[in-house]
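Run Aminotransferase class V-fold PLP-dependent enzyme through structure prediction, thanks.
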Amino acid sequence: MTETKDQIDQTFVQSHFPGLKSDWAFFDNAGGSQTVLGAIEKVTEFLTHRDVQIGGSYDVSLAAAAALMDGRRAMQTMTNAARPEEIVFGHSTTALMQILANAMRSQFVPGDEIIISIADHESNIGPWDRLREFGIVVKFWPVDKETYALQLDDLDALMTERTKLVCVHHVSNILGQVNPIADYVKFVHDRGAKICVDAVAYAPHRAIDVQAWDVDYYVFSLYKCYGPHVAVMYGKYDLLTELDGQYHYFYGKDKVPGKLEPGNPNYELAFSAVGIVEYLAALGEHEGGTGSQRNKLEAAFVAIAKQEDALTNRLLANLRGRNDVRVIGATCNIGSNRVPTIAFKIDGHHSGEFTKAMDEYGIAIRFGDFHTRRLIEELDEDEDGGVIRVSMVHYNTLEQVDRFCAAMTAITGNCAAA
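Sure, done. The structure for Aminotransferase class V-fold PLP-dependent enzyme is below.
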């Protein structure tokens, strides 16, 4: 069903995002979302009142250490981790995946196998693929070119007793479909391997529950999830203790998570995580959620999904009605199983030229391969500038979708069928 009005209180939502005072319609959120006011205020608070190194006995240093722990606890709430020490902060998902691959390397011996989804962002491919030089066998889990789905039968055909790790995305930043991660985890664990999930394209859209899914490693970027440029890696505590340290030699095996944060994390950005979770809890309460902060956060994501379903359905309906557009991925949002990250190509139009033309209408989108180059090449979509991508979140509106569709008609000289 295509909704006729927004499904979330946009007055409440947009009041929390200073950047939305701009006239731009930000449809490039999978590249980076707007930062919520509470996160900005936490950064300012830290730099104003707690801006010292942790580890000292004096009050300000203790306050700095408390801010870092508060950030870990906030991400514990967001991910439903068992303990705050299971939260590792890093510069980006790319950096954290590289740290994880380096920290796991000694767990592999020549002939061991890592299986990677071909549809993953390069962040969850490159660090593992480079382990080939140590004799590790890397296999690629293919995507079905007709359905754009990953099939467990294909994974089963790849796995052997030497398979130690499977790397996969929760949502592709091109295809937009939510993968059944709990099913993948059970499948992989039943065959004696571990699993590493890139959650960057999932985390802004749905609640995370690493314990319910039993996932081993789960990584995402807060700058695509309403925060500043920082990222989070969850890992089961026992698994983190087994990893090789990436910091100084005297950071022992059990110094978790510090041994995986070389040079220490960015304190003020870690503290900003508190502001993100506080906003989500406030949104959940505004939408009728009660109880714990976690319960309110879950209520927020229920409301977020309703709004995003409306956005997704509105745009897909328009694109389906055009005779010059080919969507890369599912063309329908069945069972709320698609996030509003939608890639497509327009017949007779270079993706880059179309994207730049959209600038004149105050609508921010992007084109290319989005660092998911192997998938784009596998699908033979790398010609004419790659794909056009519209990526929305809950603060986007149906009116903005209509603006985009009208601008698309003006730029292409073609319109959707009635």
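The mean pLDDT is 97.
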